[in-house]
Each structure stands twice: as structure tokens, then as C-alpha cells.
Design goal:
Helix 4 packs across helix 7. This protein is mainly α. The protein starts with a helix and ends with a helix. It is built from seven helices and no strands.
Length: 143
């Protein structure tokens, strides 16, 4: 099972690195559609959001590939990242924005259900579940 998890971790790392590079280059305009309307203060800031999220994706992707000793923390951070960018997917659905070939409300709705799959993938392939449990436990003890 460890080999399977490793393969899936590496695939996710490669996917994230590719996605991050695409934020900075050939898919930059497509990713503008993902920026929530409430975060679009100006064209420059919207572009900053796209570029900075791309940099975060590259960092997380490369970390998934090369920081094996810290894979659980990286997986938990990647899962958190997937949760944080989910409003962008909701934005695309609620505002009927065509992007990435998602040109129907049905296609955009189906995509929403893949975000939890990505969260689970990041946590399962890295052992990040345990790190998340520890973080939640620490947050609860502070309240």
C-alpha cells in the first residue's frame, strides 16, 4: 500500500507543479475566472491572486515531490489550500463563468464535487490526516 500512496503522492505533486506553472504562463487568463468576485479589487490585484496562487501551487507541488520526510505536513497544507481555493470554484459556478472547458452549469457543478476528492487525495497519500487531527486538537485546546 505504501508504494501506491507514494505513486499517488508523486502524481499529485507533479499535477500541482504543472498547474502552478500554468498559472504563471499559458492558462493565466483561465485562472482569472477562478478568482472570486469579492476578491477582484482591481485587474492588477486579480492578476496578483492568480500569480501568487500559482507560486503556492508550485511550492506545494515540489514539496510533495521532494520533501518526503515532511510529506504529512505538506499533505495537510495542500488539503488546506484546496479548501481555501474552493470559493473560486463556487464563483465560477454561481456566476456561470466559462473556463477550462467548463461551459455549462452542469459541468461546473460536477467540478465542485472533485474538490473534496483532491482534499482526500492529499491527506490519504501523505498521511496528512494525522497532522490535521493534531492541528484541530491544538485549536480546540486553545478555546
Amino acid at each position: 500500500m505504501n508504494k501506491v500512496k507514494t505513486i499517488f503522492r508523486l502524481l499529485l505533486g507533479a499535477f500541482m507543479t504543472y498547474a502552478g506553472v500554468s498559472h504563471l504562463t499559458f492558462n493565466r487568463l483561465e485562472f482569472v475566472a477562478q478568482v472570486p468576485m469579492w476578491l477582484r479589487f482591481s485587474d492588477g490585484f486579480t492578476d496578483f491572486v492568480v500569480l501568487s496562487s500559482g507560486m503556492v501551487e508550485i511550492a506545494l507541488g515540489l514539496s510533495m515531490l521532494f520533501l518526503y520526510k515532511h510529506k504529512a505536513v505538506v499533505g495537510a497544507l495542500l488539503a488546506l489550500f484546496f479548501v481555501l481555493i474552493f470559493p473560486g470554484n463556487l464563483n465560477q459556478y454561481f456566476y456561470h463563468i466559462d473556463s477550462f472547458g467548463l461551459n455549462t452549469d452542469s459541468a461546473r457543478l460536477i467540478r465542485l464535487f472533485f474538490q473534496p476528492v483532491l482534499v482526500a487525495w492529499a491527506l490519504w497519500s501523505t498521511g496528512g490526516w494525522q497532522v490535521c487531527k493534531e492541528w484541530i486538537s491544538k485549536l480546540r485546546s486553545k478555546s
